[in-house]
From TrEMBL:
GO terms for molecular function: hydrolase activity, hydrolyzing O-glycosyl compounds. One of its GO terms (biological process) is carbohydrate metabolic process. This is Glucoamylase (Glucan-1,4-alpha-glucosidase), GH15 family. It comes from Arenibacter troitsensis. Residues 8-135 form the Trehalase-like N-terminal domain. Gene3D superfamilies: 1.50.10.10. InterPro entries: 6-hairpin_glycosidase_sf, 6hp_glycosidase-like_sf, GH15-like, Trehalase-like_N. Residues 222-582 form the GH15-like domain.
Length: 603
């Protein structure tokens, strides 16, 4: 497999990746950030997988059931065919709340003839650190490990367990199932019960998708991206993950490999803003509660990221026994970036708080807590905005005065003023306006580079940076302002490579980046659109969409030369930016249709 040709299934508790050929190659249970049970994606020899094996006469196709998170892989040789419907159960319970057990169901649907396949069932618990022993029991297949840490895993199936474990040929004549569970079942599964789980889960996702508005253009892409973002949300705490994986490299063979199964305040807040705009307010409310729970002390500084269960310490370690994706070592778990200072997170968080208060008004509970957080953020920004930091790209060496961080400090105060106006706190409005103007003037004075005719990466730097494009999105500058137009065009000239963008071109801690950061290309497309280069923006957008995998999913990066997907997958950042672009294009398309119809009416 040369690309990240995977589909994601999930139930807002954990997720799994299934390859184009129906192989379950990545899954951590019981939760997103638990140790892996299947990790072939990180080591194709010892990582562990659950594969459906057919001979070369079969063609294999894969798609989602529309508007759901149920992935269907179809195997057919023309006469004999079957499909695997993969999902993680999630549905509403009559007693309230959601049923989302740490389970994967692989429903085997017989379509025609007598298809033949073999099963390779090879779980490797605890990141394959010790030996996993698997035993056929009367009612299930049990796997366990105890060398490094004790852990167990269970497989229930309507097929012959000995045939599965011996990789014998299985002739399928009717529907069947595999249920993979972290816990032993009290009620033994049956085909009827498993089918009911499938239908209930299908109804859940159809209901969820029905709340997403319909768009004239790019509707399918918006809905698939929204579903992907939902699958990266963790119901229990309200956290939103950056991606479902760890250590998928930004560049094959290099060491830019990070664990993304955590909640970055920046990524999550941007996701929540977009998903909230699509009308999914429960996910936004849960995330705001997650933030409220994280800030018990009024003077406590916000970390840039947290564990999905609000953990504050995310110690980074390497798993040296795993070879890494395509041999790209090291495989890391945990993330040392949690210690970094990035001043932009306050602006991004305030933007979300303001957006939700404006959108849902009195429906938002915890208004007093949110007002308390707002005041606390202003206090922190006032105290620290003039200090250097690590910036949005998490440079691990020197601190700098990054333009993006300064713009987001301005955003924090601008949105705090708007929140104060909503709450009728005029004295704060008057007081905070002075600080807002001070930061604005500082950015205009120090971030603009006369020679480059652009706002640059950091104060006094000649280097361009795609993150600066967001100054318009956050309302710092008008899209038609000559300085902004000039910045967009300068970034196009210096950072655009065959329609894909570098984040920046100056060397970082690991040398010059050789892959494009997907979200930056979306930001660039959005900026082109905003400054009036709409045809060019649309052309770039369609080109970028063509680089997604076979299911319309994106990772973090795209290789400039081969256009293959790289980096952790699927990436929340990439999909939220896709939605933003698509919504802008669709809105413009609708406006043009209205104008056309008015012209026709005048005739």
């Amino acid at each position: 497999m040369d690309n990240l040709d995977y589909g994601i299934i999930g139930n807002c508790r954990s997720a799994a990746l299934i390859s184009k050929k129906g192989s379950l190659d990545w899954c951590c249970l019981p939760e997103f950030d638990s140790s892996s049970i299947f990790a072939k994606i990180l080591d194709d020899k010892i990582g562990g997988s659950f594969e459906i094996l057919v001979d070369d006469t079969y063609t294999i196709e894969q798609k989602y059931i529309p508007l759901t998170a149920i992935l269907v892989t179809t195997f057919s040789d023309g006469e004999n065919s079957f499909e695997i419907q993969d999902f993680m159960p999630r549905y509403y319970k009559q007693s309230g709340g959601y049923n989302a057990p740490p389970e994967i169901i692989r429903y085997v649907k017989h379509l025609s003839g007598k298809p033949v396949f073999k099963v390779l069932y090879d779980p490797k618990l605890e990141y394959a650190m010790g030996k996993t022993n698997t035993y056929v029991k009367e009612n299930f297949v049990a796997s366990l490990t105890h060398e490094v840490k004790f852990d167990t895993f269970f497989l229930y199936t309507s097929l012959d367990k000995e045939d599965i474990m011996s990789k014998s040929e299985i002739v399928l004549e009717s529907d069947a199932y595999f249920l993979l569970g972290y816990n032993e079942k009290i009620l033994e599964p049956t085909l009827e019960r498993v089918y009911l789980e499938l239908e209930r889960t299908k109804v859940y996702w159809l209901n969820w998708s029905s709340k997403t508005p319909t768009y004239k253009k790019y509707d399918a892409e918006i809905k698939r991206s929204a579903l992907t973002l939902k699958m990266l949300s963790y119901d229990k705490s309200g956290a939103v993950l950056a991606a479902a994986t760890t250590s998928l490299p930004e560049t094959i063979g290099e060491v830019r490999n990070w664990d993304y199964r955590f909640c970055w305040i920046r990524d999550a807040s941007m996701v929540i803003k977009v998903v909230g705009q699509l009308g999914h307010k429960n996910i936004a409310k849960r995330y705001l509660q997650f933030i409220i729970d994280l800030i018990p002390d009024k003077d406590e500084k916000l970390q840039i990221m947290y564990g999905i269960n609000k953990e504050k310490k995310l110690t980074e370690e390497t798993l040296d026994h795993l070879q890494g994706y395509k041999g790209s070592k090291p495989v890391r778990i945990g993330n040392a970036a949690y210690k970094q200072r990035q001043n932009d997170i306050y602006g991004i968080l305030m933007d979300v708080i303001y957006t939700q208060l404006e959108k849902f008004d009195t429906e938002i509970e915890n208004g007093e807590e949110l007002w308390g957080i707002t005041k606390g953020i202003v206090w922190i920004v006032n105290k620290h905005w003039q200090e250097a930091d690590k910036g949005i790209w998490e440079f691990r060496t020197e601190d700098r005065h990054f333009t993006f961080s300064k713009i987001l400090c301005w955003t924090a105060i601008d949105r705090a003023i708007k929140v104060a106006e909503l709450f009728g706190k005029q004295r704060k409005v008057d007081k905070w306006r002075t600080l807002e103007q001070q930061i604005r003037e500082d950015i205009h004075q120090h971030a603009w580079n006369e020679e480059k005719q652009a706002f640059t990466q950091s104060y006094g730097s000649p280097h361009l940076d795609a993150s600066v494009l967001l100054m318009e999105s956050y309302g710092f500058i008008d899209p038609k302002d000559p300085k902004y137009v000039s910045t967009v065009l300068a970034i196009e000239k210096e950072l655009c490579n065959d329609g894909l963008l570098y984040r920046y071109k100056n060397e970082d801690d690991f040398g010059l980046p050789s892959s494009s950061f997907t979200i930056c290309t979306f930001w660039f497309i959005n900026s082109l659109f905003k400054i009036g280069h709409e045809k060019k923006a649309m052309k770039h957008f369609d080109q970028l969409l063509s680089y997604s995998n076979h299911l319309g999913l994106f990772s973090e990066d795209i290789d400039f030369k081969t256009k293959r997907l790289l980096g952790n997958f699927p990436q929340a950042y990439s999909h939220l930016a896709l939605i933003e672009c698509a919504m802008n294009f669709s809105k413009k398309h609708s406006e043009m249709e209205i104008l056309e119809s008015l012209k026709d009416h005048d005739k």
